[in-house]
Automatic annotation (TrEMBL), chain A:
Biological source species: Parageobacillus toebii NBRC 107807
Protein name: Pyruvate dehydrogenase E1 component subunit alpha
Keyword annotations of the record: Oxidoreductase, Pyruvate, Thiamine pyrophosphate
Keyword match Oxidoreductase: yes
InterPro entries: Alpha-ketoacid_DH_E1_comp, DH_E1, PdhA/BkdA, THDP-binding
E.C. numbers: 1.2.4.1
TrEMBL record, chain B:
Keywords, sorted A to Z: Oxidoreductase, Pyruvate, Thiamine pyrophosphate
The species this protein was found in: Parageobacillus toebii NBRC 107807
InterPro entries, per database record: THDP-binding, Transketo_C/PFOR_II, Transketolase-like_Pyr-bd, Transketolase_C
GO MF, one example: pyruvate dehydrogenase (acetyl-transferring) activity
Protein's name according to its UniProt entry: Pyruvate dehydrogenase E1 component beta subunit
NCBIfam families from the UniProt entry: PRK09212.1
Amino acid sequence: MFDQNQLPFDMVQLLDENGNGDEEALQQFSDEFLVTLYKWMRKARVIDERLLKMQRQGRIGTYAPFSGQEAAQIGSVLALEKEDWIFPSYREIAACLAHGLPLTQIFHYVRGHVLGGRTPEHLNIFPIQIIIGAQTLHATGCAWAAKLKGEKQVSVCYFGDGATSEGDFHEAMNFASVYQVPVIFFCQNNQYAISVPVHKQTASWTIAQKAIAYGMKGVLVDGNDALAVYKTMKEAVDSARNGEGPMLIEALTYRLGPHTTSDDPTKYRSAEEAEQWRRKKDPLHRLRVLLEKRGLWTEEKEEAWVAQANDEITAAYEEAVAAETGSIVDVFDYVYGKPSKLLQEQQQEAARRKQGKEVK
Amino acid sequence: MAEKTMIQAINEAMRQEMERDERVIVLGEDVGKNGGVFRATDGLLEQFGDRRVFDTPLAESGIIGTSIGLAVNGFRPIAEIQFLGFVYQAMDQLAAQAARLRFRSAGRFTCPLVVRSPYGGGVRTPELHSDALEALFTHSPGLKIVMPSNAYDAKGLLISAIRDEDPVLFLEPMKLYRALRMEVPDEPYEIPLGKARVVKEGEDVTIISWGAAVPLVAKLAVEMKSKGIDAEVIDLRCLQPLDIDTIVESVEKTGRVMIVHEAVKTNGFGAEIAALISERALFTLSAPIVRVTGYDTPYPVPSVEDDWLPNAARIFEGVQMLMRY
Ligand SMILES: Cc1ncc(C[n+]2csc(CCOP(=O)(O)OP(=O)(O)O)c2C)c(N)n1
């Protein structure tokens, strides 16, 4: 019988669960970088917890929490340059924020603002994807365009373990490798696709090993080790930028919360399992231990930073609430460059109703 | 000006747009060296090289999905789906991703993509090569749907489609690729999307059609004239945007309507046109609206396809029924 041990994949790890690692390897990271990394992750956790709470209070719509995946998202996105592209799914809020998306825009999105999907002109962030795996092809095409134009942008596609079962994922890997385009497939294997565990999603032992069949490099990295993620991603980005083609990264991580705010994870996984990850493998914990060891972080700094993050969230939320949410009349403007006669008629009808006039 | 077939006109449109605009690229299965299974892209690889013309891996979703990324990052891809029956493989990328990109991003991103595909019956193809699936896409706001019926229109409409900022599905009736020659200007020209063509003016009955069925309808209208029935024939050319004004104007004049299309009847685009006419011109009608279409079965095997497609006998019967009122 075929033995998957013939496809060995060691997991890249720099920091273990207790915040220890090879001192020499850790020396490559400056104090400033470590603090920036941690601050982003900590802020992301605060944001996630607040959004979850706000959903429960009915202040925002359905939301897909990412707590537990901060190292994978922030570690990977900080390895990018500002002009690089990211193609997120609904779970990559942290990555979007760290790549520059204003928090207010996230609130517009989760509150269902008409313009909620519009990312700012100067940011290369694609709208959040709902169809599992569809964005893998968009990222590949975008990277292909960069290569044809001789531009140095790299495109990064974020998706989950479930997405690797979709045809689009495989078509994207194949196209990317055939054309050697600068795209990075970044899989956050958080071990569940809603309720389905990864071993029921795929029979391969790792997702990273799928890269082999497409003729590209695949790397398995400890997704809760922000430094290992950063280092792996940096190498992938540099090699893609140098014209060495695509890469698949599997970041092994865990979603601590529910799939979305309408999901009950106790139906498909034990509370102990989640608790174990929360206690033992939390990506924030191990980085904070390192920071403390280097004398870069204290409880006071933590409290001040969390308070500041909370203030920022409140301000962004208030700004979003104060903004007009747009109206039904506006949605017609974004279907075609120029609306057809029939569409214009419907828009006029909607406008008349909005103004409270009778429709003749 | 020279006489050209539809396939030559299509080829010329792509070549001239590629010459005019460096951002225009062509991709699909066998479109490069082979020049396309119908030779639509013949010579493009030789002229523009392998950085503008791509023989892609055999994956329809991949072709459309990567085209979206290419379009977003500065190109104007022309993607070929080898036969329209294979478009189901790319349904999400075309109907949900390309179509909705402008909407999802509230105008931040547009998708200037043309998807060309041969379709239509009467050519004895294997299964799932001939199906007319245009109605599926009229249900996807954000897509434009263009269906030329002759060489002149094909060139002008394709050039407009390539220059358009929105994704366009450009459906080419394969039966007409080489069926006729007609005068087609050598220089580039545009035919605006959403403007129907009145093929023949008439007083007694309006026959609305598009794509592969148009030449047949036009020919039969001439025969009808000799039998004393003066039909007005409208070639829609585009289903989205739709030229509703030309339809209503004609219906108000004739009071009788027949719709002819190759696609299956139920939920075909003919049903939409009938509904629009009933909303806008019901009381000018002196007879029920008649549809002559493919039957509600999967596209059949070659031995019976001529009886399945809208044909002369079925169209004449429909017109006679209309004229009895
Ligand atoms: C094409 C498609 N099928 C099904 C769904 C419903 N759905 C939403 S999320 C999800 C699970 C995705 O799991 P994974 O790819 O591992 O990403 P994660 O949610 O864990 O980040 C499913 C089945 C969908 N959105 N799109």
